[in-house]
Amino acid sequence: MINLANLLYPLFVVVSSRSVCQRAEMAISMLSLPKPTILSPLRNPQRTPIFLPKCTSSPSTSLPEQTQHDHSPCISHSRRRLLEVAMGLLAFPLFSVSEANATRIEYYATVGEKLCDMNFAKSGLGFCDVLVGTGTQPPRGELINIHYTARFANGIVFDSSYKRGRPLTMRIGVGKVLPGLDQGIMGGGGVPPMLAGGKRKLMIPPLLAYGPEPAGCFSGDCNIPANATLLYDILYLGLYK
């Protein structure tokens, strides 16, 4: 005799399993946040911004595909897009100002002062004032600040305080710098002293520069060749404070 309960039991198990799955899906849908529609999603959702955590999820085989993609514990695509736009707006003016400053520094480092007629002292130093300052002259042995651009005789720049973005602090008149700079800034031997705020061009012969030996050498390469005549554009800022 066929037992009716034995025949209906598998059907009851299947129906019960589907009911449990449906209830689970409904519970997850009720607990999950709805997908925002304020902004459009990213064009390439798989590409994650470097400043945001990558969304990872553990898909469940019992849930539909749409539920797996729409309900994620990570930041939504729209919010991520909004953060990308905000970061771009914040970074744009910073990069623009930085590039503008760099361009301006490079300009001052490579463009010389206007030409002037050189006068020559007995030492062979050439000098001329582009702008006579109105401040005090540099005292011997004191620390002073200058801006300068240094060139070879062919006009190629080999050093500049403008390029570094800060003035040079040096002790004047006691042999701490090139003899041509000591004489050209502090004066003496037929050269008038510079005044604070003044601009002067100097043509320094080899004997008042680095002489017969090359300078600025590293691993056999030298920045300044032997017997080089050097041209300096000097802006005397004043005493170091």
From TrEMBL:
Domain PPIase FKBP-type: 141-240
The keyword Kinase belongs to this UniProt entry's keyword annotation: no
Entry GO terms, CC: chloroplast thylakoid lumen
Keywords attached to this entry: Chloroplast, Disulfide bond, Isomerase, Plastid, Rotamase, Signal, Thylakoid, Transit peptide
Signal peptide: 1-17
Catalysed reactions listed for this entry: [protein]-peptidylproline (omega=180) = [protein]-peptidylproline (omega=0)
EC number(s) reported in the record: 5.2.1.8
Subcellular location per the Swiss-Prot or TrEMBL entry: Plastid, Chloroplast thylakoid lumen
Pfam families: FKBP_C (PF00254)
Broad class of where this protein is predominantly found: plastid
GO MF: peptidyl-prolyl cis-trans isomerase activity
Similarity comment: Belongs to the FKBP-type PPIase family.
PANTHER family: PHOTOSYNTHETIC NDH SUBUNIT OF LUMENAL LOCATION 4, CHLOROPLASTIC
Protein's name according to its UniProt entry: peptidylprolyl isomerase
The organism of origin for this protein: Rhynchospora pubera
Organism phylogeny: Eukaryota, Viridiplantae, Streptophyta, Embryophyta, Tracheophyta
